[in-house]
Amino acid sequence: MKVQWAVLAEGFVHDARGAVTAVGINQNVLVTPNLPIRARRGVLLILTGEPHEFKSGRSISFTTSVTSPTGQTLMAQSAEGKVGDPKWLDVPGSMNLVAESVIEVTEYGTHIFHILIDIDDEPQITAEVEFYVRAAEDTVENVAT
Fold first, then answer.
1. Strand 73-82 relative to strand 59-67: parallel, antiparallel, unpaired?
2. C-beta of residue 60 within 8 angstroms of C-beta of residue 45
3. Structural domains of the chain, count
4. Tell me, what's the pLDDT at 59?
5. Maximum C-alpha span of the chain
6. How far apart (Å, rounded) are the C-alpha atoms in residues 145 and 140?
7. In this predicted model, what pLDDT tens digit does every residue of 25-42 receive, in sequence order?
8. Which end of the chain has less Cβ packing within 10 Å, N or C?
9. Peptide bond connecting 123 to the previous residue in cis, omega within 30 degrees of 0
10. SS3 category, 119
């Protein structure tokens, strides 16, 4: 099983079919004139693998955290559950994992969402997604010099 892709967004909802829908997709740059600021951010991970890896009843735990440019943990949360019944046994399996939080940002620079996924006795799956906090007055000209 592996992380096929990850996306940042302002938030996530379910549509009429129950499918996960991203709101404010690819929100990887937060521009603000002042700090601190509270910002809502979330990450969606798509896990893919062979059908047998998504066997019903397998235990899964999912931990996310966000660190600032100086390594301060701004948010950490965990969830656990069981893998549900696969719909099709003849196609590769997939699973959506979503984590959302309001983060109090106190520094400009590169922030990182850290994701740890544990499924039964399998090797831990990890992913990182960066987002950037910039001052409102930052422009290409100001940053390049």
1. antiparallel
2. no
3. 1
4. 94
5. 56
6. 9
7. 877 899 999 999 999 999
8. C
9. no
10. strand
The whole domain housing 29 covers 2-144
Q: How far apart are CA 59 and CA 87, in angstroms?
A: 18
Encode pLDDT of 98-124 as tens digits: 999 999 999 999 999 999 999 998 899
What is the rounded distance in angstroms from the CA atom of residue 105 to the CA atom of residue 111? 9
Two tokens at 85? 């019944």
Q: Which two tokens stand for residue 96?
A: 């959506």
**Residue in this structure with the two tokens 């966000």, named with its chain if needed:** 66
Residue type, 68: S
CATH of residue 57: 2.60.40.10
CA distance 114 to 95: 18
Torsion angle of C-alpha atoms 33, 35, 39, 43, degrees rounded to 10: 100
pTM: predicted TM-score of the whole model, two decimal places: 0.83
